[in-house]
Amino acid sequence: MRKAILATLAALAALSSSIARAENFPSHPITIVVPFSAGGPSDAMARILAERMQRTLGQTVSIENVTGAAGSIGVGRVVRAAPDGYTVSFGHLGTHVANGAIYNLGYDLVTDLEPVVLLPSNPMVIVSKNAVPAKTLKELLAWLKAQPTPATAGTAGAGSGSHIAGLYFENASGIKLQYVPYRGTAPALNDLVAGQIDLIVDQLSNSIAQVRAGTIRAYAVTDARRVESAAEIPTTDEAGLPGFHMTLWSGLWVPRGTPKDIIAKLNAAAVEAMNDPAVRQKFDGLGLQVPPPDQLTPAALGSWQKAEIAKWWPMIKAANVKVQ
Ligand code: ASP
């Protein structure tokens, strides 16, 4: 009897301290772990969001770049963090879907994390170094087919968005690529501009500034519609690879067991940020599309992630991706 009373009291104490924690949240700075290099597309989106989220939350929201193994090291860091809302995982189709089909992660992307919010998405764009002689997608495909050894394609690692997009490009066109993994597509893009690699199937938000500056060449965006802020780039449908559509979406997650009230506060801050006209303007300039309002609940991200796992895992497993 005494034991039961003590157990109940202990449970009540734990409950009230978790309620107090949720009420005071956030009482100190929050870290968003970006699992790719600084200056890349994930990093850029996370920094725009963090800057605006800290206004709503009344606390500093800083970014930590924990890179390597296509983002799986950075995600693992958050899985093992305290479930208190102070360590948040930024990720995308690659880190929170594809990596589960490729790596022996030691954690489960669905059950070891709680979804917070779906973030903007953008199509990929096929870009090459300027020294590639092709001017159109059809000419690029002919050039790729004529190479004695496969052309080199930069990626953010096996399973990253740029790698899945490359695999999809190979499947859709019948060409062969040789992948060069980086810790993010920021360093891959630097090497593309310098002519060290031949191409990237990149997130539009990463390449767009270099395309505009004329330092690399864009062939097509992987969407059914042209992107407003890059309307000069044709779609894959128009340029000769009909049906090659891919959108790279991002999201935020926290460790399993994070109190629901804390998740709700993080969600509200991210939604407020995405609704801010100044933030929208920055996203529009990068070709990033904010999801519709009904897609912005934690539950919506949870179902979307599961649906994407069902869609992509068979193709990724069939590609038999090797992890170096
Ligand atoms: N999101 C990019 C990719 O998966 C990597 C990055 O953000 O640097 O290819």
Question: How would you portray this structure in words?
Answer:
This protein is of the alpha/beta class. Helices cover 46% and strands 19% of the residues. The strands form two sheets. Strands 1, 2, 3, 4, 7, 8 and 9 form a seven-stranded mixed β-sheet that branches. Strand 5, helix 6 and strand 6 form a beta-alpha-beta unit. The N and C termini lie far apart (58 Å). Bound molecules: aspartic acid. Residues 36-37, 40-42, 92, 94, 156, 160-162, 184-186, 203 line the site of aspartic acid.
Summarize the structure.
The chain has helices at 2-24, 41-57, 72-79, 93-102, 137-146, 161-173, 185-193, 204-213, 236-239, 260-275, 277-285, 298-318, and strands spanning 30-34, 61-65, 87-92, 113-129, 151-155, 177-181, 199-203, 216-221, 247-255. It is of the alpha/beta class. The relative contact order is 0.18.
Terminal residue distance: 58 Å
Content-based structural category: alpha/beta
Strand content: 15-25%
Q: In sequence order, what are the helices and strands, one letter per element? A: HEHEHEHEHEHEHEHEHEHHH
Mean pLDDT: 93
Let me know the number of strands: 9
What is the makeup of the main sheet? 7 strands, mixed
Apparent shape: elongated
The helix fraction, in percent, is 40-55%
- Multimeric state: single chain
- State the low-pLDDT regions, or none: none
Give the radius of gyration.
Answer: 21 Å
Number of helical segments? 12
List the ions, cofactors and other small molecules found in this model: aspartic acid
